[in-house]
């Protein structure tokens, strides 16, 4: 079984405003039975990764969850350099997470990687309070071609 996860295409959102942030494209390609959709493409920001790590840690018990790159308020060097370092760190984090059987069993991880649901929507879905089951949410996103539309858009 092969699972390839790539964190790429960092984009600054709301540039120039006090609430600007960077989000990253997460591209997943797999033949693993653990995943509902075999390919997906979503955009996530750093604080969503922080949330995911916390949730994985809560549910994994004694299984160590990989570290995230640090959140720097004081960074020496160029912004591009910082964003690239963070991108690499986020990719390493996800690569380690998807190789871990215990972490792979967490449905929050699957919704994080394979749907564009927000953090509160993921929580609601996992707790059975959303309009769809976890599988339905992932399939709905996969069928809507959002992932492919974003993929194509970034190529052109």
Automatic annotation (TrEMBL):
It comes from the Eukaryota. It is found in: Cytoplasm; Endomembrane system; Endosome. Belongs to the sorting nexin family. This is SNX11 protein. SUPFAM superfamilies: PX domain (SSF64268). The keyword Amino-acid biosynthesis does not apply. Keywords: Cytoplasm, Endosome, Lipid-binding, Membrane, Protein transport, Transport. InterPro entries: PX_dom, PX_dom_sf, SNX10/11. It is a peripheral membrane protein. Residues 2-119 form the PX domain. GO terms for biological process: intracellular protein transport; vesicle organization. GO terms for molecular function: phosphatidylinositol phosphate binding. GO terms for cellular component: endosome. Its main location: cytoplasm. The gene is Snx11. Pfam families: PX.
């Amino acid at each position: 079984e092969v699972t390839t996860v790539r964190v790429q295409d960092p984009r600054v959102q709301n540039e120039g405003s006090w609430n600007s942030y960077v989000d990253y494209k997460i591209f997943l390609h797999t033949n693993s039975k653990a995943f509902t959709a075999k390919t997906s493409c979503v955009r996530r920001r750093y604080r969503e990764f922080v949330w995911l790590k916390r949730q994985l840690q809560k549910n994994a018990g004694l299984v160590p969850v990989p570290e995230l790159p640090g959140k720097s308020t004081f960074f020496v060097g160029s912004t591009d350099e910082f964003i690239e370092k963070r991108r690499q760190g986020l990719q390493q984090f996800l690569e380690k997470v998807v190789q871990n059987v215990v972490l792979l069993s967490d449905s929050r991880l699957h919704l994080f990687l394979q749907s564009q649901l927000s953090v509160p929507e993921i929580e609601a879905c996992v707790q059975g309070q959303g309009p769809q089951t976890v599988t339905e949410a992932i399939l709905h996103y996969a069928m809507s071609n959002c992932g492919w539309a974003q993929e194509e858009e970034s190529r052109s």
